[in-house]
Amino acid sequence: MQNTLHIYLSIGVKYRNRVSELIATATTSLVTKEDLATLQRLQEEFAAELATLRGRVDALEARTAELEANQFSTTTKLNGEAIIAAIGATGGSPDRDDPNIILTNRVRLNLNTSFTGKDLLITGLQSHNFLGGLDGSGSLQESLGLASPILSASSARTSFEPQFPGIDVKTLSDVSANEAYYRLKLSDNVSITPGAFVLFNPEGDNRNDTTTVGVLRTTFTF
C-alpha cells in the first residue's frame, strides 16, 4: 500500500512539473497550448486530492518508521496460546468421596524464525500447572479423584494435556522448552528436518523416564 501511494504521488508531481514546462515552451503541433491549459486546469481541480494523498503518504511513512524502530525482530515472528480451563468429572469410580473441580492452565509461546526465507526454525516455550502421564501419578485425573488405569477411558485426559508428563510438581508453572524444530527447503520438492524427539517411558515400566532420539527426516513432494 505504501509503495503504491508513493509511486502514484511521484507520478503526480512529475506530471505537474512536466505540464508546467510544456506550457512555457511548447511550440510543436503535437500538443497545443490549449490542450496543455486544459491539463493544467484538471491538475488544479484535483489539487486538493493530491494534497490529501501526500498527507496520507507522509502519515504512513511515519507509522512505518515507528513500527520498524520497535519491531520484535526482522527474522522472527512471535505467536502464543493461553488455555485456562475449569475441569471436573462425574461418574466412574472416584478414589474419594468429594472429587475436586480444578482450574488448569497451559501457556505456550512460539518463536518462528526464517534466516533465508526458505527455512523455518520453531522454538517453543511452555508453562502449565498440571501433569499428564500413563499411570496418573500427579496428573489431571488424580487431581480429579478418578481412578487412572493405563490408557483407559477414565483417565480424564484433555486435548491440551502437556507432553513430557511426570514432571516434578515443584516445577509446575515454570517456563521450559517444549519444542525445537528446524526445516530447510533444498528445492521446490525436497526439504530436510533435523531434530530430536522424546520417547516417554520407552521400557513400559513405572519409572516414567524419557529417551531423546536424534532424527534427520527428508521430505519429498511431487
Please characterize this protein's 3D structure.
By secondary structure, the chain is α+β, with helices and mostly antiparallel strands. It has helices at residues 2-25, 33-45, 47-70, 140-143, and strands at 76-87, 102-113, 119-128, 176-185, 190-200, 210-220. Strand 2 (102-113) and strand 3 (119-128) form a beta hairpin. The chain is elongated, with a radius of gyration of 32 Å. 7% of the residues are buried.
Features:
single chain, about 220 residues, alpha+beta, 2 domains, six-stranded antiparallel β-sheet, 4 helices, 6 strands, elongated
Averaged pLDDT, please?
69
Shape, per Cα inertia axes: elongated
Regions with little confidence, pLDDT below 50 for 5+ residues: 147-155
- The total beta strand count reads 6
| Strand percentage | 25-35%
Order of strands, widest sheet: 1-2-3-4-5-6
SSE order, as H and E?
A: HHHEEEHEEE
Into which percent range does the helicity of residues fall? 25-40%
Work out the helix count: 4
Estimated structural class: alpha+beta
Distance between the termini: 35 Å
Q: Please give the domain count.
A: 2
Radius of gyration from the alpha-carbon trace, in angstroms: 32 Å
What characterizes the major β-sheet?
6 strands, antiparallel
